[in-house]
Amino acid sequence: MAISPPLGREALARRLEAAFDVEFTFHKVDHLVEILAPLERDTQDFILGWVERIASTNIQVSYEFTRRVVEALDRLDRRVIEAWAVHAMDTYDSRGLRPALEVLFKVDDFLAHAHAHAAGAFFDEVKTVLANFLCGLSGRRLELKSGEQPYTDSEKLFLPNVTAGMESEADNFLLCKAQVAFMWAQTRFGSCRTDFDTVFAGFADPARALSIFQALDGLRLEICLAHELPGLWRDMQTLSARHGDAALPPPWQALAQALAARPEAPETALALLNDAYPLDPPACRIYQAALHPQAIAEMRNARMAREKMLLRVKLAQLAEEHRENPEAQIPPADAAKKPAQFEARQEGQGWELTLDDQPIAPPVDVNQLLTSVLLDWGEIPPEMLTAAGDGEYDPALYEEKEKNPDDVWQGTYHEEGAHLYPEWDHARQHYRKNWCVLREIDLKPGASGYVDGVIEKYQGLVKHLRRTFEAMRDESRLLKRQAQGDDVDIDALVEALADAGDGREMSDQLFMHMHRTDRSLAVMFMVDMSGSTRGWINDAEREALVMLCESLETLGDRYAIYGFSGQTRKRCEIYRIKTFEQPYDAATKARIAGIVPQDYTRMGAAIRHLAKLLNGVDAKTKLLITLSDGKPDDYFDVYRGAYGIEDTRQALFEARRSGVHPFCITIDREAKEYLPYMYGHANWVEIDDVKKLPLKVADIYRRLTT
Amino acid sequence: MDSPRPPAESHFITQEPYYERVGTEVELFDAAYANGLPILLKGPTGCGKTRFMEYMAWRLKRPLITVSCHDDLTTSDLVGRYLVKGGETIWVDGPLTRAVRAGGICYLDEIVEARKDTMVVIHPLADDRRMMPIEKLGQLLQAPREFCLAISYNPGYQSVLKELKQSTRQRFVALSFDYPKAELEAKIIRHETGLDEAATAKLLKLAEMTRNLKGNGLEEGASTRLLVHAGKLIAQGIDARAACEGAVSLALTDDDDMIAAVNELIAALF
Lengths: 706, 270
Ligand SMILES: Nc1ncnc2c1ncn2[C@@H]1O[C@H](COP(=O)(O)OP(=O)(O)OP(=O)(O)O)[C@@H](O)[C@H]1O
Ligand SMILES: [Mg+2]
What we know:
The structure holds 2 protein chains of 2 kinds.
Chain A: H1 9-20, H2 22-25, H3 30-36, H4 41-57, H5 59-75, H6 78-95, H7 97-105, H8 107-112, H9 114-119, E1 121-122, H10 123-136, E2 143-146, E3 151-152, E4 156-159, E5 162-163, H11 169-188, H12 196-201, H13 206-228, H14 230-243, H15 250-259, H16 266-271, H17 273-276, H18 293-324, E6 342-347, E7 350-355, E8 358-360, H19 364-377, H20 395-398, E9 419-425, E10 430-442, H21 450-457, H22 459-473, E11 476-482, E12 487-488, H23 490-501, E13 511-516, E14 521-528, H24 536-555, E15 558-566, E16 572-578, H25 586-593, H26 603-615, E17 621-628, H27 642-657, E18 661-666, H28 675-679, E19 684-686, H29 693-705
Parallel strand pairs in A: 2-4, 10-16, 14-15, 14-17, 17-18, 18-19
Antiparallel strand pairs in A: 1-5, 3-4, 6-7, 7-8, 9-10, 11-13, 12-13, 15-16
Helix pairs in contact in A: 1-3, 1-4, 4-5, 5-6, 5-7, 6-7, 10-11, 11-13, 11-14, 13-14, 13-15, 18-19, 22-24, 22-29, 26-27
Chain B: E1 10-11, H1 25-34, E2 39-42, H2 49-60, E3 64-68, H3 75-79, E4 80-85, E5 88-93, H4 95-102, E6 105-109, H5 119-126, E7 131-134, E8 139-142, E9 148-153, H6 166-169, E10 173-176, H7 182-193, H8 197-212, H9 224-235, H10 240-252, H11 256-269
Parallel strand pairs in B: 2-9, 2-10, 3-6, 6-9
Antiparallel strand pairs in B: 1-3, 4-5, 7-8
């Protein structure tokens, strides 16, 4: 392989000047050139690549990066430098310029954590697998979140952003897993139901009592884990040994033996607290998570009251359903007055409920409530199994409230009820996490007579279309000359008889077989509602939709229509025009009429969201058809230009990988330049006349279904 | 695509199949059979429906003819068709016709997969007429007393297209199947694989874990069948983790994150 000569000073200067836009920013590049000039070409290329990528996010950040990178290169390998750069950009995204520069200035801080960045387990990378792992373990449904250090509040488990206590990446993952299992055990085996205040109040030094209890309880949980998850327990011991955790002092070994008598109850640890109090607590094992009595108690108190209410309200509903059931034999007299009293018994993983001596299968949510109550109380107190009386609780307390997305922009900005989507930054070659905030909104209906008007206007075309689509509906092919089939193929038979008469061998392929293509198709139309469609394009879109609906109704395939627009990444909007479930009725027609130009086109987020909806539909073939006037664009934003095209392309790529076929129908004359790049050559059409549009869709259909 | 389908297996079952009763399904089936009522087995995959049918066929001493339905299965595939052999046309009975003639038990597995038009022959068989029209022969077969029609259906994979129509489902006596309770499932696994109690208990715990994941990334938890598979591999001397990864996690899903999570659960157990 030929090694290219290093870039000269002049070439370096030009690259840097371009990256920093010096014409406008007046950054000096001379001293940077001096730093880069003596390096090998390969290193120069590596640095310049990152300089340019970072500059696409922010020039200042890139400039500061360049000033420091060479010195850092002496000490760090490239993987760490990349992590450093990405970390700075992520910081810029989430917290702004100052903190991002901070990351660069404090290179030593970062270096101190360099190991973490090279071999650590990142929360973002492990959370999917570990959250599923956690879900597989029994008990209350727990959430996995990132936090300062590993601990649980009995509903959420926290893991730090980076876990790097061990040497290797694999061990660090295992450590996360062990910590998760340990915290799960804290909720599962009763540590969290301990009444810490009362217990520790009796000790001269409550803090010491806590740490002693924690040590005892840790030993107890280890015994539980060894029994429940023996494979993991072996791994945990290996981790502990590799980390060099100190061996357990003899008095503690004796305590561990005492705990083994009844490890599943926290009372076993509490009973030994007095004995252990004078001892020094042993060093923590690496996988142990600290107990936070405060956090646990707060959660638990709120939860116990809430779950008692929820359980009793749900039981009241169950009792009502049960008693309405004519087959149920209800002791006639007291049925009306006394609140129903249930009994609950644990049955394997689930629960069995009985009411009036009759078994009732508890629904999933009741099952989970019972499990959760058991974890908090150690049993199910009978008063919790008394159905709530009428009006005993204020419905406002248990009925779930939803925030109205329309209210989002009034008052303070919030992200509740919104969907967050990543966005692909091509310059950075990384996703920006949780970058787009997207909401679904009901479209306001327009004029009611609009659709009928369009049908009248295009009467002939609509009829023609219906016929085209009708023909497609029963696209059955008659296969001739088959060895078997539903009917005799007369032509073949006559031939065969003639053959037989001539003494030749007779064919046995004498049947016709009707081959029907079972259509299992779902189509999602994604309609551009950006401001640039104002005028005839918007009219074209609406008219086309009317004709498409008319045609699709004859076909009986499932279809949905959504509009998209928005302004900036914090406000991506998706307008519901017709969901898969909604019929093509007067209300839907009015919404089609109501499609009016709004703001901008941030396409990536819309594609990601609609592809997700489409993937929720059970169909063999899934089509995502975009009706748009042009390329992606957003308000005073990088989304205009290459960035938007690349993100859209990436989103389409993701959609395709998930099994969706994307198509684009465009009314943009310049589309040839970039649409093939985004959609692939075969998957877009340009249309200059609305009347052609439904026919094109019919074409696309045919291509995919035959 | 249109080659002749292999003939459905038909046989008298001479050896008692191993079957553990879960509830009152045997009595219910007996009663329905005695009254000439058709039977619908509902339940998730791999929970013992086929085994139950084999057991009942043995018990009632009737031949069992099983047809696995698929989306290309036509009425002719069930009823029969003309074939040409050596210049002559001969009629060949389909599995359903054979079962009717022989007074056997016809078990149509995953009925919703079959083409809608197959219902035309099933409906008259499944009500009190117990008749089967063979249009091509111009015949109307009366099913003998011994004949029994049973179909299976898994309501789990809900899809608007694949639901059983009311006019079909209301003809059948339904038996609901589910994974057996832990103790019974353990007994089944021990019997089918020869594993000891400790190893069986771990398999059951794994099953529980995957069933917790149902609806949270998995379409379905591990069935009794998967546990039996894993158990057989382990009994054969395969390392337990490898056996479960092959027989359980890869069999459950194609989603990489999910496979990884199930593998972590396996590694935690074994
Ligand atoms: N009650 C039972 N008694 C004995 N074995 C059982 C029982 N339930 C399940 N099994 C075991 O589970 C395996 C799978 O059961 P089977 O093949 O009958 O499932 P199925 O319900 O027919 O599944 P599918 O719907 O996928 O056809 C059997 O081979 C058997 O080993
Ligand atoms: Mg079966």
